[in-house]
Task: structure prediction
Amino acid sequence: MAGHGPGFTVYRQNTILVHNFLLPGNAGGEAQKRNDTMLSEKMIEALNGQVNKEMYSAYLYMAMSTHSNEMGLKGFANWFMVQYHEEMFHAMKLYEYIARQGGLPVLKAIEEPPATFDSAMDMLEKTLAHEQFITASINDLMEIAIAEKDHATRIFLQWYVTEQVEEEENDNDIIAQLKLIDNHPQGLMMLDRDLAARATTVPTDFSKGIEAAAKALA
Ligand code: OFO
Result:
């Protein structure tokens, strides 16, 4: 009978739990910090901000993939779509870390990326500039973790510090090749063929969590 017995109690608890997660009034501020979390309020907010930046990165590279296809550069389109998957993985790793540490992941609006670009060089230069921005943001997160003696987060962020070196190196390599090509269509087509070979190496199914997804790939 509704309203009586253990079933009702469980239903009520679930309802309250769902409401705590979904009501807009609880979407930020104090609600981000649970009593049992190892993370400070400031750390949770900064990590949540990074989730948003990584999601924007994915969105930006998806836009560049779309534009590459429009330009007939299928290899560039592939390279950027692989990059999209990398960024989703970066975002999900952060999301899961916040939750595992007892924080509340808070999803904010993702900014609209540009829809068109002047050239392949324009896309790569904007990619590099964006990655430099992300590197600075990761460094800021690291500074917070160090200042707060949050060693778990400091060690977690180390992965991102290393990853950013690789991200910027990849972009610089392609920019160097584009400079050598100097707008010659034949060279551009050869580079496009090379970029078509890039394959996704990160997990793309996060339904069972990052660790399970990584194991499934191994
Ligand atoms: Fe997540 O490294 Fe690019 O943005």
